[in-house]
Every structure is written in structure tokens, then in C-alpha cells.
């Protein structure tokens, strides 16, 4: 199914194709099982239960690259980082930075809009234990590559949420930008910054907005604010 990615004419076409992907049997089984069984708190809701497309501006200057949708977040609501604690933290930070019109993201029709930002993930289906396999990552990669290609004219900065997203960016350099990734690869860390010069977007590292990080204080609101302030500066976003 991901072979359809290069043929997507625009983001709407790409989003529709992503939503209809059945390429990875393990992920398909998991996302559909979660959608059928449901969490008790959401037992009366209809789950999306499909791959989750990107979300945000078509002329984004900043991209946020995550790992994969959450089983009861994006897999339930159909929008990335929507309806879970990670999204609560992320969109509150984007609102403080002036990149989102509201600080909450609870449903796909809640009126949230983003300015100069697009959000997507390296893997588009919710994986068991939040751990996609290398084969699933590679199968899903054409969707990421095409999405970056479509926003390439304006994209200036990529914020990688976590080490998985940081690693997923290097193949994009060669596939989309024709740039050889650095060797050895720069280590991921919060606040890490790799510059592609004029050939490719700046890459910023940020700890993932997972409950494990935010509840323990490993990632604080102030740390997120610093990353997005840096991203805005590098992308020349007011």
C-alpha cells in the first residue's frame, strides 16, 4: 500500500491514501482490536482504528515528527496527538508558542488549527507497547518521505520527539533532499541540533511528550517552550 505514497498529488490525496493502508498485518490487527475492545472510559465512542495521517499547515515552516499514534489517542480520534495526555502537553506548549489557536486537542472536530506547523509520525498505526518493528518502520517510511516532499518548499525546521523519530529523519535526507546523512549519526538528546545548512531543514531533538517523561519531570513545560522558541527562531516564524 505504501507504494501509493509517491503518487499522492497533494496532502489531501496523501492523507486519504494513508488512512486506507493495510500493509503491516501486526499493526492492522492491533489497531482494529483496540478499536473493537475499547478502553472503559471510551466504551461509548466509535474508534477511528485506522492509520493516522498528518495534521497541520500545508505551508508549514516547522514539522513535528513523532513515533506513532497512541492506541487510545490518535487511534481513537483519528488525529495525531489528539485525545491523550501527550497531546495535552504538546498542544498546550504550541499554544503558548503562538503556533496553535487553543491549548487543548480532544477531538478531530474541536476547532484546533495550527500556524506554521505540521505534525506527523514515523509510523502511522498504533503499535503494541508503542514499539514498531524495524520492518514496520521501513514499510511506513514512504508515507513520511512523501509528506516531507510535499511541504519541502516551506519546511525549515524539524522537531524530532524522541530517539525513534530522530533516527527516522536520516533516511528522509537521502530520499527527499538527496543529502548524504552524517556519519557517524549525531546522538539524540533534548536540545540537540543538527544543521543541514541550505540543503535541508534544521533538526532539533526534544524528549517525547510521553507520560513517562512529563510525569517524572524529565520533560518540563519550560523545556518544551525552549525547544519551540528555538524552532521558531530557526524557521524565522514570528
First-last Cα distance: 39 Å
Unreliable spans: none
Radius of gyration: 17 Å
Query: What is the succession of H and E elements?
Result: HHEEHHEHEHEEHH
What oligomeric state best describes the polypeptide chains here? single chain
Query: How large is the share of residues in beta strands?
Result: 5-15%
C-alpha geometry: globular
How many alpha or pi helices?
Answer: 8
SSE class: alpha/beta
Helix content: 25-40%
Secondary structure tally: strands: 6
Mean pLDDT: 96
Sheet with the most strands: spatial strand order: 1-3-2-4-6-5
Biggest sheet descriptor:
6 strands, mixed
Summarize the model shown.
This protein is an alpha/beta fold and 238 residues long. The protein is built from 8 helices and 6 strands; from the N terminus they run ααββααβαβαββαα. Helix 4 (85-96) crosses helix 8 (221-235).
Structural commentary:
The chain has helices at residues 11-19, 25-37, 74-77, 85-96, 134-151, 163-177, 211-216, 221-235; strands at 55-56, 62-66, 117-121, 157-161, 193-194, 202-206. By secondary structure, the protein is of the alpha/beta class. A hairpin with a 7-residue loop joins strand 5 (193-194) and strand 6. The longest helix has 18 residues, at 134-151.
Task: Give short descriptive properties of this protein.
238 residues; alpha/beta; 8 helices
Give the arrangement of secondary structure elements.
Layout: H1 11-19, H2 25-37, E1 55-56, E2 62-66, H3 74-77, H4 85-96, E3 117-121, H5 134-151, E4 157-161, H6 163-177, E5 193-194, E6 202-206, H7 211-216, H8 221-235
Helix pairs in contact: 4-8, 5-6
Amino acid at each position: 500500500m505504501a507504494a501509493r505514497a509517491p503518487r499522492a498529488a497533494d496532502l489531501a490525496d496523501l492523507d486519504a491514501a494513508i488512512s486506507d493502508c493495510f500493509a503491516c498485518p501486526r499493526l492492522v490487527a492491533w489497531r482494529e482490536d483496540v478499536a473493537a475492545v475499547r478502553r472503559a472510559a471510551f466504551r461509548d465512542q466509535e474508534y477511528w482504528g485506522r492509520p493516522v495521517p498528518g495534521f497541520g499547515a500545508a505551508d508549514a515552516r516547522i514539522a513535528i515528527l513523532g513515533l506513532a499514534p497512541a492506541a487510545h489517542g490518535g487511534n481513537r480520534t483519528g488525529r495525531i496527538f489528539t485525545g491523550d495526555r501527550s497531546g495535552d502537553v504538546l498542544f498546550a506548549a504550541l499554544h503558548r508558542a503562538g503556533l496553535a489557536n487553543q491549548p487543548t486537542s480532544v477531538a478531530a472536530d474541536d476547532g484546533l488549527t495550527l500556524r506554521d506547523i505540521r505534525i506527523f509520525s514515523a509510523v502511522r498505526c498504533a503499535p503494541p507497547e508503542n514499539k514498531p518493528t524495524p520492518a514496520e518502520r521501513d514499510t511506513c517510511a514512504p508515507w513520511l518521505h512523501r509528506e516531507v516532499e510535499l511541504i519541502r518548499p516551506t519546511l525549515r525546521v524539524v522537531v524530532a520527539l524522541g530517539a525513534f523519530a530522530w533516527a527516522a529523519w536520516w533516511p528522509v535526507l537521502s530520499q527527499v533532499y538527496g543529502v548524504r546523512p552524517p556519519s557517524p549519526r549525531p546522538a539524540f538528546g533534548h536540545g540537540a541540533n543538527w544543521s543541514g545548512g541550505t540543503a535541508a531543514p534544521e533538526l532539533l531533538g526534544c524528549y517525547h511528550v510521553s507520560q513517562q517523561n512529563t510525569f517524572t519531570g524529565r520533560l518540563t513545560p519550560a523545556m518544551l517552550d525552549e525547544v519551540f522558541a528555538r524552532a521558531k527562531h530557526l524557521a524565522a516564524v514570528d
